[in-house]
Amino acid sequence: MTDINIASVSASLYKCCDVVGINASTYFRWHQDGQVIDDKRPTAQRPVPQNKLSADEEKAILSVCCQEEYADLRH
């Protein structure tokens, strides 16, 4: 394949990725050794953030936000 053909194929690949809404790096990650691998994002194990609010903290914030004095913040 010539350099021009390679550039043309690469440009088409990037345009196709853009059309379907994925990054080209995602395409390359999903295609390994000529095989398409499954999208592992939905089943990925993600750690709980260190700064996640506890249930009590979330409840306290929501109770303040739902008070009458904060119902209308336009004034």
State the major sheet: 2 strands, antiparallel
Distance between the termini: 67 Å
Round the Cα radius of gyration to an integer and report it: 24 Å
Query: What is the tally of beta strands?
Result: 2
Helix share bin: 40-55%
Strand content: 5-15%
Low-confidence stretches: 1-7
> What oligomerization state is this entry in?
single chain
Please report the number of helical segments.
3
So what's the overall shape? Answer: elongated
Within the largest sheet, what's the order of strands? 1-2
Structural class by helix and strand composition: mainly alpha
Give the rounded overall mean pLDDT.
81
Helix-strand pattern, N to C? HHEEH
Overall description:
By secondary structure, the chain is mostly helical. The protein has a domain at about 1-40. Helix content is about 50%, strand content about 5%. It is built from three helices and two strands; from the N terminus they run ααββα. Strands 1-2 form a two-stranded antiparallel sheet. A hairpin with a 2-residue loop joins β1 (about 30) and β2 (about 35). It is elongated, with a radius of gyration of 24 Å.
Top keywords for this entry?
mainly alpha, two-stranded antiparallel sheet, 2 strands, elongated, disordered N terminus
